[in-house]
Design goal:
With about 300 residues, this protein is α+β, with helices and mostly antiparallel strands. Helix content is about 35%, strand content about 20%. It is built from 6 helices and 12 strands. Strands 3-2-1-5-8 form a 5-stranded mixed sheet, with no helix packed on it. The mean pLDDT is about 90. Bound molecules: dinuclear copper ion.
């Protein structure tokens, strides 16, 4: 019924969830049976038309007050301690910055590496995400880890988890944030500690040896550009890349711009400087995410899409 429990916090969360469900089920069945039984027992009968007057029954009333009280206190106590565990990252937690943008997730590692829509973490070690949004409210949700926290503009929020073993888990955005909210999906890759160290050390260095066009195509996927921009002429949230190079682009204010290197570069770094007629100003900036070589590679790739 529940997704696999892949973090150290998941067991307690599931145990409390199951306790509440089982207790509710027992009461549902018990109360339903009692209603049916009493309806039958006290049905109108011709030989007995006067119902005896019952004012109260102290023993019974105390029983049906104390049992629910105890159950509710158990739920409160476990919920409270579980909540405290959930919001208090251990002091030695590995810190990763997470940024929500319309419509992608960006993760910044301590060595400066940035990955988009991919969260890489070590297993068996607490990981703390320090999160913020560049635009509207998002919410980072990893069902396998039983963690979810709102991601807000102008304020940092935190979330922590410890993945039990290597594997993959899906990250969703759990706060409606506009047109492509449902495409705001990322993957958590959990590695053994040594593998994680190796990954982090080599992350991004493969890019250096790649052909610019190939790298550009790879970056379009990796940076989730394809969520809004197609490469085959399909009109999505943003203009298509096909046939864009050296075309005349009409802006909202009627100005016409030739899609050259400068226009593409500006569109990546300052997407809201000029808005193409017929589209909304919803693209986040990639300044600080993409370096010059990467921007040039994306331009080289767009040039090939005639
Ligand atoms: Cu971001 Cu929904």
């Amino acid at each position: 019924m529940l997704p696999p429990a892949k973090s150290t916090l998941a067991a307690e969360t599931d145990a409390l969830f199951n306790f509440i469900n089982v207790a509710s089920l027992i009461f549902l069945v018990g109360i339903t049976i009692a209603i049916i039984y009493f309806s039958w027992k006290y049905r109108r009968r011709s030989d007995q038309d006067v119902t005896p007057v019952i004012a109260h029954n102290s023993k019974l009333e105390i029983t049906w007050s104390v049992i629910p009280l105890v159950l509710v206190l158990i739920v409160f106590g476990r919920g409270f301690t579980g909540y405290i565990d959930n919001i208090t990252p251990p002091d030695d937690a590995y810190e990763i910055r997470a940024v929500g943008k319309t419509w992608l997730w960006e993760f910044h590692y301590p060595n400066g590496h940035v990955s988009i829509n991919e969260l890489h973490v070590p297993a068996g070690r607490p990981v703390k995400l320090v999160m913020s949004s560049d635009d509207v409210i998002h919410s980072l949700y990893i069902p396998d880890f039983r963690v979810k926290m709102d991601v807000l503009p102008n304020r940092y929020t935190q979330l922590w988890f410890e993945a039990i073993e290597p594997g993959e888990s899906t990250i969703f955005c759990a706060e409606y944030c506009g047109t492509a909210h449902s495409n705001m999906i990322a993957t958590t890759y959990v590695y053994e500690e040594e593998e994680f160290v190796t990954w982090l050390a080599s992350a991004g260095s493969a890019d250096d040896s790649m052909d610019p066009v190939e790298l550009g195509q790879e970056l379009i996927t990796r940076n989730a550009c394809a969520t809004c921009h197609s490469s085959d002429g399909t009109d999505l949230i943003g203009p298509t890349f096909q046939g864009l190079w050296q075309s005349e682009v009409v802006m909202q204010d009627g100005e016409t711009v030739i899609a050259d290197e400068n226009y593409l570069r500006e569109s990546i770094l300052e997407p809201n400087a000029r808005i193409v007629d017929g589209y909304d100003p919803v693209m986040p900036t990639f300044a600080g995410t993409l370096n010059d070589r990467q921007i040039e590679a994306i331009i080289e790739y767009i040039k090939t899409l005639e």
